[in-house]
Amino acid sequence: MANFYNDNPALKHHLTHPLMEKIVELRERNYTEADKFDTAPTDYADALDNYDRVLDIVGDICGETIAANAEDVDHQGPRVVDGRVEYADGTVKNLDVCRKAGLMGMAMPRRFGGLNFPITPYIMAADIVSRADTGFENLWGLQDCAETIYEFADEDQKQRFITRVCQGETMSMDLTEPDAGSDLQSVMLKATEQPDGTWRLNGVKRFITNGDSDIHLVLARSEDGTKDGRGLSMFIYDKRDGGVTVRRIENKMGIKGSPTCELVFKNAKAELCGSRRLGLIKYVMALMNGARLGIAAQSVGVSELAYREALAYARDRRQFGKAIIDFPAVFEMLAVMKAKLDASRSLLYMTARYVDIYKVYEDIAKERTLTPEERKEMKLYTRLADALTPMAKGLGSEYCNQNAYDCIQIHGGSGFMKDYACERIYRDARITSIYEGTTQLQVVAAIRHVTTGTYKQLMDLYAETEVKEELKSVRDAILEMVKVYDDTVARVNEVKDTTYLDFVARRLVEMAGNIIMSFLLLLDAQRDEAGMFDKSLRVYVKMAQAEIAKHFDFIANFRPEQVDLYRAE
User: Fold this and answer.
1) Do 235 and 217 meet the contact criterion of CB atoms below 8 Å apart?
2) What does the pLDDT read at residue 1?
């Protein structure tokens, strides 16, 4: 019986990280909810047992139901009937089993019917669901939009909408338009306030994931005469009120079970969420950070599936009298795939833990005044989460694509055929480095943490940890990479040319990512007595050394005026 949680010991390793005790204690308010709710834990061990049991259910549903339906969903896909979306049969079954298992609203407070999970175990569930069916994760994972309602809506809206999400209703975030992709300041969907205080929405949205959901978060222009982000507000649209039709579903390369819709708003009734004019400046930024962490989890789940498919095929496929896994050209590819998978997962969960801490402090601040020490911690973890989120999304999705590519390569000619899952994996993986901000946009978000020293601060923090004797040579190799990184950053900063900085930004961010993921794998290997991460650590550090040397060499031998060589004619 397949269980996608229990068959992956790395997940339990990350669930029991030392920071989790602090996270859970804060999240559970020192376990004071145990008197109010039967499902609330009484202590840390009780909470971990609860997470473990729920993740076991997620793993079972994913292994037995969602993964089993994935191929049929990919072939059938959703369709539009009379302006509404009809999901593929397998998607309907998947949603039904998730609702019955109580897996909607996992991170929402118990008073709304949620499980009050920290972000880390919720992201772990997203990792598992993505391995089962990448497209279905887009439907199930959009329950995370409820976090925006929880953070910014009024109490009445929270009671009405979050409760419905916890009961199993679906969500979407309606941001992009035909002329406003990544440039959301250009959004023109019109919001008009009515005498009764409600709003009416008119216009078109495009590329909306799960666009026929029950509850929508809609970015719209509320201020007449404006053309930038300061004229945008966030609205909640309830499908029950009508006024929105699905014009079409995009015919996509992959994630075919996830309907990507073009929506037409015609006097659609909506409610303002939060304050006017803060839709893009504040609310979308929070929404996108959560979405990017979700795509990082999706990328890790796809990487896991790609690695497992490649490994299984390499063990079974025989050529020249032996299994192809015995050929160096193949086992080297598999080792690198596993190292990239483990490194991106270590980065994902460290990022999730940092997000957990600052988010829970923000929540506590609504109940009482934070102490100076708590405010200091919140500020620190906010900065660390802001630094690692674009790195986890950007580099994690690139590794995901590389692993999907190598999965097909190991399958050879068979990988090009639809007889094997790797063809679908390859198509599904491609979007991860595009939506919710391309890899290039993640570099734009990350580069300031190179120049301001946040990444170096993390490197110094991780370097302080004592390691076992057998890991000291690996730590020394990482520290040598840090020296090269410091030298490279200093060279770039000396130039004082923003165009030059933007040009080399990708290389600097990748260098920082290589070093930080090397450190995180080192810390995982130090904490794990079973040696689960030792091989990936050593393989990844070898790979990182080569990448660091490559980027250093390019920057050291590149003059700012040579940027013009790369401009399009």
Assistant:
1) yes
2) 61
Classified as helix, coil or strand, 7 is: coil
The bridge status of strand 215-221 relative to strand 171-174 is parallel
The owner of tokens 């080792």 is: 335
Coil, strand or helix at 31:
coil
Query: What is the DSSP secondary structure assignment for residue 278, as one 8-state letter?
Result: -
Instruction: Name the token pair of 482.
Output: 């840090």
Count CB atoms within 10 A of the CB of residue 5: 24
Calculate the alpha carbon distances from 341 to 154, 391, 411 in Å. 40, 14, 19
- One-letter amino acid for residue 188 of the chain: M
The single-letter code of the amino acid at 75 is H
**What pTM did the predictor assign?**
0.97
> What CA–CA distances, in Å, run from 242 to 208, 456, 473?
17, 51, 64
Model confidence pLDDT, tens digit, residues 63-100: 999 999 999 999 999 999 999 999 999 999 999 999 99
- pLDDT < 50: residue spans in the chain: none
d(C-alpha 388, C-alpha 400), whole Å: 17
Neighbours of 332 (CB within 10 A): 11
Nearest to 216 by CA among 152, 148, 267, 280: 148
